[in-house]
């Protein structure tokens, strides 16, 4: 996004994400906002509760932050992050709402979906599964699917062997042992650690070379302790490694041979699965939500188990363990397809397509646009008109990639002359924005007027700007010349200029 927009990240507190963003030159603001978790599990009156957020003390904080930052667009992330959308809409700023999870289905789901539709101008889903309820609600015209992509800085395949040996030595795994991995940021019942443990204990009986690495922080101590206790009582505890947090997740995948993601709920996408695919690992998961969509897209639908079916997980793992060539072929096919479908270039292309839709559907969002090292454009009569900027301070052009500009209709009409305008004081009363003059807001809404005049006898358009005559108070005005004298004077000046 940073190739098109100046991005400002708002986080609830300082942490790894804030530091990561700053290292890449992204401005970071701290503002704690309460979530409305009922959007994920809808209930009667959820829309009323969303509107009641205006009464929260935090609401004024986010309004002040938006006014201070003066964004052209506000992007709110996850379905439960409602307050930024409500605040931005109240300030008449367009809202892009990114849906990263699947809203649970019940009799009140449509109320939650309609509420999101009311406070958003565009909706991004991270999978087809995530946007299904919005399609069903008739919002297809403002939906885009942009699935996550892998970090381009992840180590390339030529480094994997070295990283694998280093990590497995640290874990105490022998070269002949097979590591089956489970990764989750936070572990609770929905993340399916219990089915993983049940599958693993069955494999301990049939495949003594298997080792199991479980990575994740306990978010439900009782649930987590039950899973660990089951392993301890089995007598196979020494075959399991429990790691609360792994700093370098790429090292984890290189050490694994099979990745299992037994999520008990419908995931919006499945980033862990995508990372496993990137590192050429066969991935096994329950067939639901975004995980099902992801594995089927790369040709690994055969490694999906019915949701909650531990025996099916065991059967699929056994198939891979008994056929190393199948496991290797599956892993490398996963990587090839994942790069093609979810690589950074595909991600960027989808982003540019979406922004192009914004430019054509909502030209008022971007009064002036410009390709790198190219002319400034403004919308006029449904097409882009070149702009002759006479006073640069009056125009704030947003840079767009050339491939985006090239897809837009260009007008054959002559350039628009912009500049030397009468500025008024910044007015934030109408929509809460700062940093934009009243004239700029008017042109933002209604387009830019053509200030060209035709000069008689030349056959060409000559750009002239209309200047208001200024009369100095207390001083005599200039004496008017007779028309003939004025004409002769101009002729003499032209002749003298040719000498």
UniProtKB/TrEMBL annotation:
What SUPFAM superfamilies does UniProt report for this protein, alphabetically?
UDP-Glycosyltransferase/glycogen phosphorylase (SSF53756)
Listed name of the protein: Glycosyltransferase family 4 protein
CDD domains assigned: GT4_PimA-like
- Source domain of life is Bacteria
InterPro entries on file? Glyco_trans_1, Glycosyltransferase_grp1
Q: Compositional bias (Basic residues) spans?
A: 435-499
Chain segments carrying region Disordered? 427-499
Q: Where does the Glycosyl transferase family domain lie?
A: 164-331
């Amino acid at each position: 996004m940073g190739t098109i927009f100046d991005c400002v990240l708002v986080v609830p507190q300082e942490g790894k994400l804030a530091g990561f963003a700053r290292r890449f030159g992204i401005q970071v603001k701290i503002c704690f906002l309460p979530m409305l978790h009922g959007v994920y599990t809808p209930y009667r009156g959820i829309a009323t509760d969303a509107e009641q957020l205006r009464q929260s003390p935090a609401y004024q904080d986010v309004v002040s932050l938006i006014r201070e930052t003066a964004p052209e667009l506000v992007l709110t992330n996850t379905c439960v992050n409602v307050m930024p959308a409500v605040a931005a809409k109240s300030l008449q700023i367009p809202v892009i709402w990114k849906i990263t999870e699947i809203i649970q289905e019940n009799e009140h789901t449509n109320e939650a979906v309609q509420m999101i539709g009311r406070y958003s101008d565009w909706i991004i889903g991270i999978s087809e599964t995530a946007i299904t309820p919005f399609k069903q609600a008739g919002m297809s015209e403002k939906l885009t699917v942009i699935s996550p992509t892998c970090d381009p800085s992840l180590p390339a395949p030529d480094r994997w062997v070295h990283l694998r040996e280093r990590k497995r030595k640290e874990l105490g795994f022998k070269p002949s042992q097979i590591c089956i991995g489970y990764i989750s940021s936070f572990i609770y019942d929905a993340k399916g650690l219990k089915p993983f443990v049940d599958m693993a204990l069955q494999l301990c009986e049939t495949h003594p070379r298997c080792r199991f690495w479980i990575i994740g922080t306990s978010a439900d101590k009782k649930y987590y302790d039950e899973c660990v206790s089951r392993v301890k009582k089995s007598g196979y505890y020494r075959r399991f490694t429990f790691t609360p947090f792994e700093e370098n997740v790429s090292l984890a995948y290189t050490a694994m041979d099979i990745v299992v993601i037994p999520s008990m709920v419908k995931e919006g996408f499945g980033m862990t699965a995508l990372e496993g695919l990137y590192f050429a690992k066969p991935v096994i998961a329950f067939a639901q939500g975004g995980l099902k969509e992801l594995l089927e897209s790369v040709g690994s639908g055969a490694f999906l188990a019915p949701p909650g079916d531990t025996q099916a997980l065991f059967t699929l793992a056994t198939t891979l363990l008994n056929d190393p060539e199948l496991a290797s072929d599956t892993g490398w096919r996963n990587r090839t397809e994942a790069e093609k479908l979810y690589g950074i270039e595909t991600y960027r292309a989808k982003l540019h397509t979406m922004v192009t839709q914004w430019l054509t559907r909502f030209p008022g969002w971007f009064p002036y646009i410009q390709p790198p090292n190219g002319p400034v454009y403004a919308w006029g009569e449904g097409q882009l008109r070149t702009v002759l900027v006479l006073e640069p301070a009056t125009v704030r052009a947003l840079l767009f990639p050339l491939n985006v500009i090239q897809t837009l209709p260009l007008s054959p009409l002559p350039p628009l002359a912009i500049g030397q305008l009468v500025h008024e004081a910044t007015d934030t009363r109408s929509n809460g924005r700062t940093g934009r003059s009243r004239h700029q807001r008017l042109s933002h809404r209604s387009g830019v007027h053509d200030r060209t005049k035709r000069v008689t006898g030349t056959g060409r358009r000559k750009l002239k700007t209309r200047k208001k005559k200024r009369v100095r108070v207390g001083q005599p005005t200039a004496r008017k010349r007779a028309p003939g004298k004025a004409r002769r004077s101009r002729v003499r000046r032209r002749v003298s200029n040719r000498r």
